Amino acid sequence: MRLSIKHFMLLIIFSLLGFLYGIFADYYQEQQEHTAEVILGSLQDDMSEISYLLSKDIQDKKGVRTSRALLDRAVSNNDFIKAIMILDDQRVLLTTDPHYRHAPVKNAVFLDPALSAQEQLSGNKGFEGFIRFYQGKNLQKLTLVFLFDKQEVATYLSHNSSKFLINFGVMPGLIILLIWLLLSHFIIKPLERLRQYAYYQSEIPKALNLRELESIRSSMVQTFSRLDNEQKELFKMARTDSLSGLANRHALNEHLKRLIADASRKQEEFAFLFLDLDNFKAVNDALGHHIGDELLQQVASVIAEVLRTNDFVARVGGDEFVIVLHDYQSLTELSHVIERIQARLKMTWVIQEHPINITSSIGIALYPKDAEDMIGLMQCSDIAMYEAKKKGRDQHYFYTEQLNVTVQETIALDKAMRQALKKDEYQLYYQPKVNLHSGEIVGAEALIRWISPTQGMVPPDVFIPLAEENGFIVELGQWVLKEAFHQQVAWKAQGIDLPISINVATQQLLNDQFELQLESLLEDTGVAAQSINLEITEYLFLDQNENNFNVLSRLRDRGISVSLDDFGTGYSSLSYLKKFPIDHLKIDKAFVDDYNTPDGAVFLETIVKMGQSLNMQVIAEGVETEEQARYLKQIGCIYYQGYFCSKPLPVEEFIAFYGNHQACSV
Ligand code: C2E
Ligand code: MG
Ligand code: MG
Prior knowledge:
By secondary structure, the protein is of the alpha/beta class. 53% of the residues lie in helices and 19% in strands.
């Protein structure tokens, strides 16, 4: 059991009080006894004196009566004597009070020395002595009885005790009370206040009178205020993004909780904006992280500056910000606010003397229409932001349910196409590459197909773009490469030694493993490098760095040829055609389709001539009609692919076709 200070003090006080009153009671008892002894002593003195005087004066028993005056005097002089009697044996010879005419019972006047004075005074009616005298030669003995005035004795004793009680009973009580009050005021209450303060830290206790307690109090106040500041600092830190000084995800979470509670009560709407800087990674890569960081800081402060005080902004990722806007009258007004933010971010930033241009993509989700919680708002605005990016960046996009359906479909497709690889649902089809003049098949382009048990044949346009977006193309491309190599080996065994063209996505080509895999396939299968052609797209040249150039050079050095696919559809800067080692140019189907328009014709002719002058083999893609084929032949294009000759075919059909394809020449 733990005692409180108050109870402890009370215990001490009561023990002290008990102890003091114990001593006092003992002392009081002693004093009463002493007083009783004094009374008894005075009575005994009177008794001895009277007994002596009478023994001396009287000669016979009758003479006793003459001593009446002496006895009366004694009675009146001593308040404690009620009456004096002289007895001869049991006969009353003389009494000072006529009320007492009979001899008292012997016991009542017998003085028992074993009893205390008080007991004798209270227990007996009186006490007796003797008068001895000689009548002639005979010794006579009379009994002298003093009857106590018990009331007087009691009054005297009680008068004494009340004086005593006042001095020794009440005073210590008062002193103890005073001590209690002092203890309570100076120690118990201050300690209780300190305890409360330590426990609840509610209000700071006032200065205390005792030095030690005051120093405890002031150090507690100091410690608590320091802890309080530290706590506030930590609270702030936990909610602030250290780089930008904006709120972080945690703070956003809290803000949204409040906002949602508020908005749902008032049935209000607000807009949740997910902002992502476009190509921020490129800034980081090109100029370094310190420049990237500084850019983020400046962007953060500009966003904060553009917003109204009621709006909220948080940085939730590298270059990702969330802005919460409310109090707008219409979506048009909201759009204007967003446009203003995007316009401000679009300015040319100068960071450590580097001019940087950056744009932003914003996805918008509305509470409660699109989502009613933070996760939902985050997901919807994220989906909308990706749509803004897809639509060409530097714009904002509102979330729609349709968008969500598309995203869900994409997610499902993503999952299914990965599964398909495990379940071996992919196949390569082959489309012949043909010589326009001879109709001879000079090569085959491997084109992937997904033969889904539920959806049937899924064309690559459906899943390749997604695979390129999420990186799955690297894994899928490895499968394609391996499959195509083995096909080459199989055909060769059947006497068809045909170069195979394999489509390679940029991401795949730049992957570290790509060249290694190619090398080990060449070695393992024994396929000649000259029988392998890689079809790349212009996207590789978007980033014209040394590495990309080197990859192509190494492939060429190894003997592998490179085709530039879909030529004309990309940004078609001609400069890279000279710089990069490319063997074949594949003119996109779109230009072949336009062969009979003046512009289309000029374009086709130009490309063919340019290819020839750059020493590249030019291949027309998507040739569907004889007219197209004739026209191409006429302008000097030698090779083509297209339905005019053959669609991409599964392996067996391709072999059958290979044996009988005269119709491909014009
Ligand atoms: P691409 O490499 O430009 O392939 C040519 C596309 O045009 C093929 O479509 C082919 O079937 C189609 N085509 C050929 N001749 C004609 C024609 O006369 N008329 C019409 N309308 N179309 C014709 P496909 O097979 O659907 O492939 C589409 C794209 O998917 C390919 O374009 C290529 O970029 C990509 N792709 C296909 N397989 C792979 C692969 O294994 N890896 C990678 N990375 N991409 C692939
Ligand atoms: Mg191709
Ligand atoms: Mg193509």
